[in-house]
Design a protein that fits this description.
The chain contains eleven helices and 14 strands. By secondary structure, the chain is of the alpha/beta class. It binds S-adenosyl-L-homocysteine (SAH).
Length: 344
């Protein structure tokens, strides 16, 4: 059995034709799926014979909603389980200009960043394109509103699941699918350099976000194992290439950790590293997770860091903390759920 959400419209049309069905049925089925009808028999314009065949070949891989948490600021966090029991989380943030979702791309993660909850037990498995997409469909049905922005910033490293992530981007941007504009999609990576070049050459208009988090290789290696493989220089060269090919501005994420990477000298160094790059810096006061010793920078240090960047002509903002009262940081919710099950 195959998850029908993994198919593109073209693939479903081909399936229809090879099963002696009219190709236009594919679009009808797609429309139902994207409208939240997740049982073939409820697809009113599809006849019984076709439904029979569809049921024989496909299942509709919407994960089961396990928990829904709503934060005081309106952020909603969903915990959902796939058929095989693996659990992912996604976060819906409501902004004035529309709803934004943060999706997971893998169950767990193998990148090993020291401050991150997703990576604690490594990568369990990759998610397929349809499984990533299904997080959006599930969320839309829960909030009963459309989602207009997608950030690939949940659990997992998108560049470590490249093929599925690209197929996912094609599915969500398709005018016959969710029709979300490429510019409304952000892919965040810890910096797998060759994949940044590959993505650039595909010429998508998506925003690339880089988790930088340190200004020198020694410090970066201490907190992000990927830095043992690629230097900051390699990474920034790849970013410049991405901008050259796509004309897109890069977002740099910099999680501020008390006494680790939040000094004034580091703000100066970051400014000089980025001065010739078309970019925006997102400062993230780190979310403290109970498994790790890292502490959040003081408000004073965060402000000082921001002021230095701005004085040096670097565009920067502090990421609004959303949903921190509901464990909305990367991988935290899945972990607390798994732990609560363990101790039951
Ligand atoms: N693997 C990708 C995307 C998922 S992580 C990446 O590394 O970019 C999404 C963002 O959350 C990254 O910038 C990551 O470094 C950051 N992050 C992880 N744990 C965090 C924490 N405890 N507090 C703040 N940001 C965190």
């Amino acid at each position: 059995m195959q998850n029908i959400l993994d198919l593109s419209l073209k693939e479903l049309k081909e399936w229809m034709i090879s099963n002696n069905e009219n190709a236009f049925r594919a679009k009808q089925v797609f429309d139902w799926l994207y409208k939240g009808i997740w049982d073939f028999k409820d697809m009113k314009n599809i006849n019984t014979g076709t439904i029979y065949k569809l049921n024989d070949y496909f299942y509709i891989g919407i994960p089961k909603l396990i928990e829904k948490y709503t934060s005081k600021d309106g952020t909603i966090k969903l915990l959902a389980a796939y058929k095989d029991g693996n659990i992912v989380e996604c976060v819906v943030m409501k902004y004035q200009y529309g709803n934004s979702i943060c999706v997971s791309t893998q169950v767990g993660c193998r990148m090993g960043c020291k401050f991150c909850a997703s990576t604690i037990e490594g990568r369990i498995r990759d998610l397929t394109s349809g499984e990533i997409l299904s997080q959006i469909l599930l969320a839309e049905s829960v909030i009963r509103e459309r989602i207009s922005n997608v950030v690939l910033m949940g659990s997992g490293e998108p560049m470590d699941n490249f093929h599925n992530v690209i197929k996912f981007i094609d599915l969500v941007t398709s005018s016959e699918g969710l029709n979300i504009g490429q510019r409304h999609i952000t892919l965040s990576t810890c910096g797998i350099v060759p994949k940044i070049y590959e993505l650039a050459d595909m010429k998508y208009q998506i925003t690339l976000a880089i988790s930088l988090h340190a200004v020198d290789d020694v410090k970066r290696k201490e907190i992000m194992p990927i830095a043992n493989k690629y230097t900051i220089k390699d990474l920034l060269d790849a970013c410049n290439y991405y901008t050259k090919i796509t004309n897109r501005r890069i977002t740099f994420e910099y999680a501020l950790v008390k006494d680790v990477n939040d000094s004034a000298e580091e703000a100066e160094k970051l400014s000089s590293l980025l001065k010739n790059i078309l970019c925006h810096v997102n400062l993230i006061p780190i979310n403290e997770i109970k498994e790790k010793v890292f502490k959040k920078s003081s408000l004073k240090s965060v402000d000082k860091f921001l002021t230095i960047l701005k004085n040096n002509g670097i565009e920067a903002t502090i990421r609004r903390e959303m949903g921190s009262d509901i464990n909305a940081a990367c991988g935290q919710l899945r972990r607390s759920y798994i732990e609560s099950q363990r101790y039951e």
